[in-house]
From TrEMBL:
This is DNA-binding protein. The keyword rRNA processing does not apply. Pfam families: Cupin_2, HTH_3. Keywords: DNA-binding.
Length: 178
C-alpha cells in the first residue's frame, strides 16, 4: 500500500480535513493533497511531521521490522523508500525506545537530490562509497568516500549525488525518527 493512501486513510479515520493536518504538521494543504494522491514525494522529516499530526509513528507508514535485539546483521537490513523517493534506506541501529540517535544506511541513486529541509537536532554523515554534495545554508561541500559532515539540523540542508554511480551514506541523526 502506498504511503499517500495510508496518510489519507488515517486522516479520514481521525475525521480530519487536509487543512487541520496542515496546521498540525506545518506543511501546506496543496503539498499534503499531492502526497495523498501519490503526486509528490516525501522526505523523512515531512513524514515525521505528518505522523505526529496523525498521532502515529513512522512505522505506521513503513514496513520496517522491529527486532528485539541491539545487534543488526547486514544480511537482515530491510531497505525501504518513501513515496516517490529514489533513495533507499535501512535502519541499522537499535529500536530501543530510550535511544537518542537514529542511524540509517542510505543509498542515494545517481543524479538524485533530496528536498531542502531544516528541523531540530543534529546530523552526522559519513560517505561509505561514492560522492555527494551536501548543501548547508548557502555553502556546498563535495564529499567523497571517507569524508564526513557533522552539523545542526536547524541549518537548511540537502544532499545531492552529482555522479552516475550510487552513493552509500551512513546518516546518524537526532531526534530519532522511527
Amino acid at each position: 500500500m502506498q504511503v499517500g493512501h495510508l496518510i489519507k486513510s488515517r486522516r479520514l479515520q481521525m475525521k480530519l480535513t487536509l487543512t487541520e493536518v496542515a496546521k498540525r504538521s506545518g506543511l501546506s494543504v496543496p503539498f499534503l493533497s499531492q502526497v495523498e494522491r501519490g503526486e509528490a514525494g516525501l522526505s523523512v522529516q515531512s513524514l515525521v511531521k505528518i505522523a505526529e499530526a496523525l498521532g502515529v509513528t513512522l512505522n505506521y507508514f513503513l514496513n520496517v521490522p522491529e527486532p528485539d535485539t541491539p545487534i543488526r546483521y547486514a544480511k537482515d537490513f530491510h531497505f525501504f523508500s518513501l513515496v516517490e523517493s529514489k533513495t533507499r534506506m535501512a535502519r541499522i541501529g537499535s529500536v530501543d525506545p530510550s535511544r537518542q540517535i537514529e542511524p540509517v544506511l542510505s543509498i542515494v541513486p545517481p543524479n538524485y537530490e533530496t528536498e531542502l529541509i531544516q528541523h531540530a537536532g543534529e546530523e552526522f554523515v559519513y560517505v561509505l562509497k561514492g560522492e555527494i554534495i551536501v548543501k548547508l545554508g548557502r555553502k556546498q561541500y563535495r564529499l567523497s568516500t571517507g569524508d564526513t559532515a557533522h552539523f545542526k539540523s536547524g541549518i537548511r540542508h540537502r544532499w545531492r549525488n552529482p555522479t552516475n554511480q550510487e552513493a552509500h551514506v551512513l546518516w546518524i541523526g537526532t531526534p530519532k525518527l522511527f
